[in-house]
């Protein structure tokens, strides 16, 4: 019944060599959930599990660096012999299926129903897969976006998705054992707050009382090491840079 997080990708806003975009494999309570499907993460998912056997996909928002590899998954699951025994639930913002269909030049998304079962996210939505409970919380971004709180056997993982500083994110992370959080930008410019600086990340973790901070989705103006050091200074607690291929116990 342990809860673990395997990092598939951390890059923002595009993949680099050996560094896919955002994606994670969450395991707990007998369930496996692919969390975010950024560029290159479907290939990495196959290093760790059979994609046909996962219990669900959860997508924070529809920016391509968090969702585009659903297209690769369609090719693998529908045409590449990785056939799932039943359509895989995909918890994602409304319109996700239509985006995939549009890319393939199809007038509607009905042809995807044998592969994926799309289920629109909403604020406060709670779903269970095995012994794993997933709660979605709307956060501040420039499109519809959600953070995730995953709970299993008394352990809690919080994930920011893409978010600016907001009370919803602090609430989502409250008392989490592990807080996986983006640190995309080095500073805010203008009044828009749709991403987090490392200091925002550390402040949020401190206010939420999280046990451990895991920094991810670091943008091109920063290195993961620099972002993590700055976040750690603001947090004052255990802080680590998320690394591709590593599995973290929650």
Automatic annotation (TrEMBL):
Residues 33-217 form the Metallo-beta-lactamase domain. It comes from Streptomyces pimonensis. Residues 1-22 are annotated as: Disordered. It holds the Pfam family Lactamase_B_2. This is MBL fold metallo-hydrolase. It comes from the Bacteria. SUPFAM superfamilies: Metallo-hydrolase/oxidoreductase.
């Amino acid at each position: 019944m342990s809860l673990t997080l395997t990092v598939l990708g951390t890059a923002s806003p595009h993949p680099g060599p050996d560094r896919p975009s955002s994606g994670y494999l969450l395991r707990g309570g007998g369930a496996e959930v692919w969390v975010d499907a950024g560029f290159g993460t479907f290939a990495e998912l196959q290093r760790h599990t059979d994609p046909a056997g996962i219990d669900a996909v959860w997508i924070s928002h529809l920016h391509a660096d968090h969702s585009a590899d659903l297209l690769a998954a369609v090719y693998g699951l529908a045409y590449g012999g990785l056939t799932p025994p039943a359509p895989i639930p995909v918890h994602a913002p409304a319109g996700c299926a239509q985006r995939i269909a549009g890319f393939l030049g199809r007038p509607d998304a009905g042809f995807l129903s044998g592969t994926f079962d799309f289920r629109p996210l909403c604020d406060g939505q709670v779903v269970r897969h095995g012994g794993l409970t997933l709660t979605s919380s709307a956060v501040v971004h420039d499109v519809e976006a959600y953070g995730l709180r995953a709970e299993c056997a008394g352990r809690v993982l919080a994930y920011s998705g893409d978010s600016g500083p907001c009370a919803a994110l602090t609430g989502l992370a409250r008392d989490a054992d592990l807080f996986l959080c983006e640190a995309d930008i080095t500073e805010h410019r203008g009044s828009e707050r749709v991403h987090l600086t490392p200091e925002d990340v550390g402040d949020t973790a401190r206010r939420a009382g999280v046990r451990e901070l895991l920094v991810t989705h670091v943008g091109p103006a920063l290195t993961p090491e620099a972002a993590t050091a700055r976040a750690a200074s603001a947090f004052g607690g255990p802080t680590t840079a998320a690394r591709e291929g590593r599995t973290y116990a929650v």
